[in-house]
Amino acid sequence: MSEGDSVGESVHGKPSMVYRFFTRLGQIYQSWLDKSTPYTAVRWIVTLGLSFIYMIRVYLLQGWYIVTYALGIYLLNLFIAFLSPKVDPSLMEDSDDGPSLPTKQNEEFRPFIRRLPEFKFWHSATKGILVAMACTFFEAFNVPVFWPILVMYFIMMFCITMKRQIKHMIKYRYIPFTHGKRKYKGKEDVGKTFAS
């Protein structure tokens, strides 16, 4: 085996057939992702449909509760990253170098920049659901557990995590959701005009 085989090249210096196939497959996949970018509602409807199909499959098979629990924890972590600002205000509290969230009404507006953008959130959530769905086809992932304990533990962890996130949002006064473009009022003209 030559050194070129490990990087996708054949003996003659040209890319191997397998390397070209997977490169082309990756390009097609990226093209579909790029085309789907502006269709936010459609993307999320498809993802919700996939999650609904997954839930029906788990319900009908009466198993794969560990996989479902792992999927729930993964989606919760994605959601928390989606709600969190890119630059944590608690770390920026002491330093004055860099942007921070406005804390007063008259302070300059800085847009909320997420740690996990919406598109990456959707893409990761969809991939997670598809991986969990693929796991339901293998009996090795069907570990027998008492599922009500997993449900209770997930609900408890969800409540604790969201309580901490909401306290953080209240303390540093940011809202991770905005609707439409913000409108500003200029200063009212209270002075007299100069006549020459």
Automatic annotation (TrEMBL):
GO biological process: protein retention in ER lumen; retrograde vesicle-mediated transport, Golgi to endoplasmic reticulum
Keywords from the UniProt entry: Membrane, Transmembrane, Transmembrane helix
Membrane association type: Multi-pass membrane protein
GO cellular component, one term: Golgi membrane
InterPro entries assigned: Rer1
Transmembrane spans: 41-60, 66-83, 145-162
Pfam families: Rer1
Presence of keyword Membrane: yes
Keyword Nuclease: no
Protein localization: Membrane
PANTHER family: PROTEIN RER1 (PTHR10743:SF0)
Role summary: Involved in the retrieval of endoplasmic reticulum membrane proteins from the early Golgi compartment.
Family: Belongs to the RER1 family.
Protein name as it appears in the record: Protein RER1
Organism of provenance: Crypturellus soui
Name of the encoding gene: Rer1
